[in-house]
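Chapter summary example: a protein plus magnesium ion.
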Amino acid sequence: MSILRGVLFLTLYSQVFGVFQKIYCSLSDSCECDFKPNLRDLEWDLYRNVYGQHLVQDIVSEEVAKFLQDKNPERPLVLSFHGSSGTGKTMVSSMLGTHLYGWAMSSPYVHQFVPTLHFPSRQLVHEYREELKGWVQGNLTECARSVFIFDEMETMPSGLIDVLEPFLGPAHVVFGTNYRKAIYIFISTTGEEAINKVAVESRQAGRDREEITLDDLQEVIAEMVYNHRNNGFFQSSVIRKKLITSYVPFLPLARRHVERCVRSQLCQLGSCGNADVVQAVGGDMSYTPVPGEYFSTTGCKAVSAKINVFL
Ligand SMILES: Nc1ncnc2c1ncn2[C@@H]1O[C@H](COP(=O)(O)OP(=O)(O)OP(=O)(O)O)[C@@H](O)[C@H]1O
Ligand SMILES: [Mg+2]
């Protein structure tokens, strides 16, 4: 009898709580209200719409799921995306924002930085450090679940990103703000030589692309990022202190992947099944290395421009 009463109480409680939460969320613009992670949709989007990136699909869906399941994470989720131009790095970062927040990428809690726009002058690093720290701290105080996306890290002045070190580690709760619930995404082409080399060697050895594992790449990317002078993580304490949860390698795309990009974009234009354009665009891309010509030098980046030419 007491079990029955307990169940009844819990059901009633959750219903009443749900009603109050709805009223609260309709009156406030709290970030917890807008935070509506949909892991199934994220996985579906990753596995269906990102071509040729088995490592990205596995790492991103696993890390995000693990992080969100933990109601009190010990440290924020810090992912660093690497790979050549046009392989899907910015696209995947948008998918994350889209499936975490009700307002998707327009959510006021998803923040995107592009260094050439926000930190254009290397001489002003000192000022930028103060601004960036204040900005991140302010946003985390407002919303512990904030997402920060730093794109094109190869153009970020070195010495700037280290100001975020206290936020990226297992820091304590400061002034009631839990810094450990945030998500940080860093994006750069740094490490592309190492990633592409592994992909070419695997192809030359006749192995399946899916046989490439994260172990083949994780260490070498970290090393390149730390030692490469032209990128925001050059000799950074963020790398030295191992504050990146996972390096996410984007493999170079082969012609069949480029053609899938063409097909998908043609469908969006209402021209599904136009095989001539698919062939023409696929054949018009440049491929490396010579000899071999396995991978598109611009990934899927030039696809929409070329479709306009051939359609
Ligand atoms: N792996 C992929 N699967 C499906 N579409 C892709 C993929 N990679 C790129 N695309 C398509 O190409 C466009 C450009 O990709 P994206 O902007 O994500 O490249 P990027 O890796 O960020 O390149 P860059 O380093 O030049 O910024 C995307 O909008 C998408 O349409
Ligand atoms: Mg990009």
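Key point: The chain has a mean pLDDT of 89.
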